[in-house]
Amino acid sequence: MSDDSQVPVEAFDPPYYVAVFTTVRTQEQSGYRETNARMEELVREIPGFLGIDHAQTPGGLGITVGYFRDAGALTQWRTNAEHQTAQKRGRAEWYERYTLHVAKVERSHGFVRGAQQADR
Protein backbone atom coordinates (compact mmCIF):
# COMPACT_ATOMS: atom_id res chain seq x y z
CA MET A 1 0.00 0.00 0.00
CA SER A 2 1.16 3.51 -0.67
CA ASP A 3 2.26 5.86 2.13
CA ASP A 4 -0.61 8.28 1.43
CA SER A 5 -3.32 5.71 2.23
CA GLN A 6 -5.06 8.20 4.55
CA VAL A 7 -5.53 10.73 1.72
CA PRO A 8 -8.27 10.05 -0.83
CA VAL A 9 -7.44 10.17 -4.53
CA GLU A 10 -8.18 13.64 -5.89
CA ALA A 11 -11.24 14.42 -7.99
CA PHE A 12 -10.31 14.35 -11.67
CA ASP A 13 -11.93 16.03 -14.64
CA PRO A 14 -14.50 13.58 -16.01
CA PRO A 15 -15.01 11.40 -17.80
CA TYR A 16 -12.86 8.67 -16.32
CA TYR A 17 -13.42 5.13 -15.09
CA VAL A 18 -13.46 3.46 -11.70
CA ALA A 19 -13.18 -0.19 -10.75
CA VAL A 20 -14.65 -0.83 -7.30
CA PHE A 21 -13.43 -4.12 -5.81
CA THR A 22 -15.21 -5.10 -2.57
CA THR A 23 -13.95 -8.17 -0.71
CA VAL A 24 -14.29 -10.41 2.30
CA ARG A 25 -11.05 -12.29 2.84
CA THR A 26 -10.44 -15.79 4.14
CA GLN A 27 -8.32 -16.62 7.17
CA GLU A 28 -5.52 -17.86 4.85
CA GLN A 29 -3.56 -14.78 3.81
CA SER A 30 -0.11 -16.24 3.17
CA GLY A 31 1.53 -14.20 0.40
CA TYR A 32 -1.32 -11.69 0.16
CA ARG A 33 0.62 -8.59 1.25
CA GLU A 34 3.47 -9.25 -1.13
CA THR A 35 1.13 -9.89 -4.04
CA ASN A 36 -0.95 -6.82 -3.22
CA ALA A 37 2.20 -4.67 -3.17
CA ARG A 38 3.28 -6.12 -6.52
CA MET A 39 -0.17 -5.43 -8.04
CA GLU A 40 0.03 -1.79 -6.91
CA GLU A 41 3.46 -1.53 -8.46
CA LEU A 42 2.20 -3.01 -11.74
CA VAL A 43 -0.96 -0.93 -12.02
CA ARG A 44 1.00 2.28 -11.47
CA GLU A 45 2.99 1.49 -14.63
CA ILE A 46 -0.13 1.58 -16.83
CA PRO A 47 -0.50 4.81 -18.82
CA GLY A 48 -3.87 6.26 -17.82
CA PHE A 49 -3.83 4.89 -14.27
CA LEU A 50 -4.88 7.79 -12.00
CA GLY A 51 -4.77 6.39 -8.48
CA ILE A 52 -6.11 3.94 -5.96
CA ASP A 53 -8.03 4.14 -2.67
CA HIS A 54 -8.24 1.36 -0.06
CA ALA A 55 -10.41 0.91 3.01
CA GLN A 56 -10.73 -2.03 5.40
CA THR A 57 -13.25 -2.44 8.20
CA PRO A 58 -12.34 -4.18 11.47
CA GLY A 59 -14.92 -6.82 10.50
CA GLY A 60 -13.04 -7.72 7.33
CA LEU A 61 -14.87 -5.92 4.54
CA GLY A 62 -12.32 -4.43 2.14
CA ILE A 63 -12.91 -1.87 -0.60
CA THR A 64 -10.39 -0.91 -3.26
CA VAL A 65 -11.20 1.69 -5.89
CA GLY A 66 -8.94 2.03 -8.91
CA TYR A 67 -9.19 5.16 -11.08
CA PHE A 68 -8.39 5.07 -14.81
CA ARG A 69 -8.37 7.87 -17.40
CA ASP A 70 -10.04 5.73 -20.09
CA ALA A 71 -11.46 2.29 -20.84
CA GLY A 72 -8.24 1.30 -22.61
CA ALA A 73 -6.19 1.75 -19.45
CA LEU A 74 -8.69 -0.30 -17.48
CA THR A 75 -8.61 -3.03 -20.14
CA GLN A 76 -4.81 -3.07 -20.02
CA TRP A 77 -5.00 -3.68 -16.27
CA ARG A 78 -7.73 -6.31 -16.57
CA THR A 79 -5.78 -8.28 -19.18
CA ASN A 80 -2.33 -8.04 -17.56
CA ALA A 81 -1.03 -11.63 -17.26
CA GLU A 82 0.50 -11.16 -13.80
CA HIS A 83 -2.73 -9.56 -12.56
CA GLN A 84 -4.75 -12.47 -13.95
CA THR A 85 -2.49 -14.93 -12.11
CA ALA A 86 -3.02 -12.99 -8.87
CA GLN A 87 -6.79 -13.04 -9.46
CA LYS A 88 -6.75 -16.84 -9.73
CA ARG A 89 -4.76 -17.13 -6.52
CA GLY A 90 -7.17 -14.72 -4.83
CA ARG A 91 -10.16 -16.89 -5.74
CA ALA A 92 -8.31 -20.05 -4.64
CA GLU A 93 -6.89 -18.74 -1.34
CA TRP A 94 -7.54 -15.18 -0.18
CA TYR A 95 -11.17 -14.26 -0.89
CA GLU A 96 -14.28 -15.67 0.70
CA ARG A 97 -16.27 -13.48 -1.69
CA TYR A 98 -15.90 -10.35 -3.78
CA THR A 99 -17.72 -8.06 -6.16
CA LEU A 100 -16.34 -5.87 -8.92
CA HIS A 101 -18.18 -2.83 -10.24
CA VAL A 102 -16.85 -0.81 -13.17
CA ALA A 103 -18.33 2.60 -13.92
CA LYS A 104 -17.76 5.67 -16.04
CA VAL A 105 -17.56 8.78 -13.87
CA GLU A 106 -19.45 11.72 -15.29
CA ARG A 107 -19.24 14.08 -12.32
CA SER A 108 -16.50 14.50 -9.75
CA HIS A 109 -15.54 17.00 -7.09
CA GLY A 110 -13.65 17.08 -3.83
CA PHE A 111 -13.19 19.07 -0.65
CA VAL A 112 -10.13 19.96 1.36
CA ARG A 113 -10.59 22.05 4.50
CA GLY A 114 -8.88 25.41 4.10
CA ALA A 115 -8.34 25.05 0.34
CA GLN A 116 -10.02 27.27 -2.23
CA GLN A 117 -12.92 25.33 -3.76
CA ALA A 118 -13.94 25.33 -7.43
CA ASP A 119 -17.37 24.33 -8.71
CA ARG A 120 -17.50 21.47 -11.22
TrEMBL record:
Keyword Oxidoreductase set for record: yes
Q: Which domain of life is it from?
A: Bacteria
Task: Spell out the InterPro entries in the cross-references.
Answer: ABM_dom (IPR007138), Dimeric_a/b-barrel (IPR011008), Jasmonate_Hydroxylase-like (IPR052936)
Care to name a GO molecular-function term for this sequence? monooxygenase activity
Q: Spell out the Gene3D superfamilies in the cross-references.
A: 3.30.70.100
Record domain ABM: where: 15-89
Record key words, sorted: Monooxygenase, Oxidoreductase
Name of this chain's protein: Heme-degrading monooxygenase HmoA
